[in-house]
Specification:
alpha+beta
């Protein structure tokens, strides 16, 4: 569905169409993470993040361990941060120095929740002389 940008998938068995599944019905942690990696729009990232509370409720109501849910939220957040960083580099060009973006705190410990602060750091290469 994501690869072909379609909202519905027909369900067929032995040549008979049984019905359809909507993208909303197919919502899964994997689908959300995959959609982040495929998107090219910052607005789409916001839309994807808007689906996270419903996904968390769905996972918890199915008895999924809270630790696993935290890992899902963190993995999705990491994918979004990476997508934003890649978009900025694409838009602005190669950074003037090598750098590392670090997630600290709850995200760094893979314990992120829906309401969280963002403890992040950027460590960049010390450039010599006038390049600073």
């Amino acid at each position: 569905m994501l690869q072909h940008n379609t909202r519905y998938l027909l369900v067929e068995e032995n040549g008979q169409y049984l019905g359809a599944i909507s993208r909303q019905q197919a919502l899964s942690p994997f689908t959300l993470i995959k959609s982040v990696k495929l998107t090219t729009s910052p607005g789409a990232l916001k839309e994807i993040w808007g689906q996270v509370p419903a996904m968390v409720f769905q996972l918890l109501s199915k008895g999924i361990n809270a630790e696993v849910v935290n890992q899902f939220i963190t993995t999705l957040s990491d994918a979004m941060a990476q997508k934003v960083i890649e978009g900025v580099i694409t838009g602005l060009g190669t950074p003037p120095a090598r750098f590392v973006f670090m997630a600290l705190g709850s995200e760094g410990r893979r314990e992120q929740t829906l309401k969280t602060d963002q403890d992040n750091a950027i460590i960049y290469e010390d450039m010599a002389g006038g390049q600073r």
